[in-house]
Give the backbone structure.
Amino acid sequence: MLDVLVIGGGNAALCAALVAAEAGAKVMLLESSAREERGGNSIHTRNIRCMHDEPQDVLTDAYPEDEYFEDLLRVTKGITNEALARMVIRQSSNCRSWMRQHGVRFQPSLGGTLHLSRTNAFFLGGGKALVNAYYRSAERLGIQIRYQSPVVGLECKGNRIVAALIGEPSAADRDDVRADWPVRERIEAKSIVIASGGFESNIPWLTEAWGEAAANFRIRGCRFNRGRVLRQLIDAGAQAIGDPTQCHAVAIDARAPLYDGGIVTRVDCVSLGIVVNTAGERFYDEGEDFWPKRYAIWGRLVAKQAGQLAWSVIDSQAHGRFMPPVFPGEEAQSLPELARKMNVPVEPFMKTIETYNDAVVPGHFDHAVLDDCHTKGLTPSKTHWALRLEKPPYRAYPLRPGITFTYLGVKVDEDAKVLGFDNVYAAGEIMAGNVLGQGYVAGIGMTIGTIFGRIAGAQAASHASRDHAPS
Amino acid sequence: MTQASSFRSIMLSPAQAEGARVMGICNSCRYCEGFCAVFPAMERRLDFKSTDMDYLANLCHNCGACYHACQYAPPHEFALNVPQAMAKIRKESYAYYAWPSALGRLYQRQGFALSLALVLAFAVTMFVANALIGSTAVQGQLSFYAVMPHETMVLLFGSVFLFAILAMTIGAIRFWREQAVPTQAGAGKESLAAIASLRYLDGGGDGCVEQSDAPSLARRHLHHATFYGFMLCFASTSVATLYHYGFGWKAPYDFLSLPVILGTLGGLLMCLGTAGLLMLRFRRDPRLGDPEQFPMDVGFICLLFLVAFTGLALLVLRDTSAMRASLIIHLATVMAFFLLMPYSKFVHGLYRGLAILKHQREQKSPNPLGLAEG
């Protein structure tokens, strides 16, 4: 019988499988995707947030435990388990040598991300390179890897999960989250690690919290995070943690693919222009703070607009000043022409622009600082980088909410053990809500996944070695 | 020239358009920035013109690391494949910058070009050797120059070699003129170092990928063996020329003489390097390159191997009755190599070297873009 069965195929699952195999356990990993799409949302990541008391190879300066924890407190507004959070933070200071042993390589922060050079270690080649390195290491360690193996059921006996049931999706219903896939195989193991992500790719489930608006969401990550295992775990008695209605949502280009748009679909010109809804009206301060600190509120803001659609509008003063967008903007020599291309009513749009332009107070524009270009007597105001929109050509980029991850998960203890179970451990997005109750700070998802993945793997292997229950 | 390539200087060819599409998406992502020079060079641009694509494509060493790291590689609908897009543009650029232009089409038919060059070289070498054989006394131990007098050899090979150098120089000038290279001089030292060490043929440190996503430094090492072996052979010929004209010492030289030591070492390295590269080329994941370039790559590697191998064979057989045949065979392969230099994979070193020089100069100039943090 297997010692450890890992459900999931992303960073947390791989860390758990690798540590368990290193401890001598017989390990199998179940990835619901095909090999070419393996790795879950980890393939879209690019860095890990690490505590350090002095400069460390690619990390500059210092990022002490307390500062890290304060950053976490600020974004979560206190919705965190301090003991678990501090444990994750402390272990983030020395996990990278282990990652390197398994082939992960680091580099200084990427161009355009200098603001992260102190706190975040970037993966050379990004998250997919990390995932590939871990899979190669897993193969070397003799871990059995099963692709196209979605878990459709968990078999419980008392407070133990004794087996997982692998479903057989047909090509036709691969994307049908409600399909009742027949069971292909039943796999028993002494310990189970669940690292199968959240439920953000399950649009019917998102609809429960967001109503029909969810139909207009784009999923930034993979199509495989359907939350099947999460729901079964909660149904089997695991304690839920995290707001079941909440998800991390950013504003992305409306033309992004439904799944896997990843990093490139972001639109980084919001703070350089204005944002209007389909009625041609502004609805929030575009210049509230630096874009990296604000992009995560715009998903929610756009989700509340009619049709979950908005437009970021800039003039030529902003061209070439922001990270190049993946889709070209609508372009026009005049603002009414632009409104027609956006399919936004011309009159209210022009009124918005005129009111905004009249309210702009001249200042010294500098996108590198919180400058003094702002509006006066305008609601909502634009507090920084406010320049009159008057220099053609004008461009507009359509925005929609892009869902990164969901917060609902299961409660765990410091051994990554799922509360209420004897042999079940959880790591990654499925338990991230223990530490990250809301909000987000760049690179912490990979920190939680890596640290809890390693703990879960070690504890699952140790539990299996003590387990003498009849198989 | 095809219609696509004749319009190439004013608009993007289909291969360049695909490359520009790919670079547009890469430029919004930048995860591969640490792999090589291509991505930092890309980040200095917001749109990609024909000349930009020729530059970036020749800067690409085809290590393949970015393909496996790409979150947008197939089956993703963006279907990004940087190594393949760059390989296709590279081949087009070799043909486009070739001089005379008409011979650029030989890149489309490398198998034919290789056979033609070999046949031609054999015919010429045999003819010259046979025409002269009657006038030379054939008795006792044969010297190389009994098969072909030194002056004839120099005239024949020297003129073909000089033509090849001329053709490649014109190609290089054509390429360089189309590139808006930062004018300040310098960066020569950094460029030479990057070329000599194959700095960008390492996928950011761990090496290139071949049949799987596992990186390996094998290709870099084998390329080093081939390149430095080639340079040793070149040094051997140069020393021999010096011996001949400077000191009046005539070949064949003693086994322990400098030209023979350099040539033997160089020949062995080239044989080892090219045999290894050939093996890797056959094993390589075909998605990482342009499948149409297989004949160009394999043909060129085989020709280099033949040049080295026949040179070594000549050394072994030079005191036997097979000397004459082995000399003719070796001279013919060398002649074929010279003939093909400007119209084969050989030019990859030329355009890549220039692209590296441009890149190093760019890196020394301030970035023209000042983008907000994203």
Q: What stands out?
A: Chain B has two domains: 3-97, 103-361. The beta strands of chain B are 208-209, 215-216.
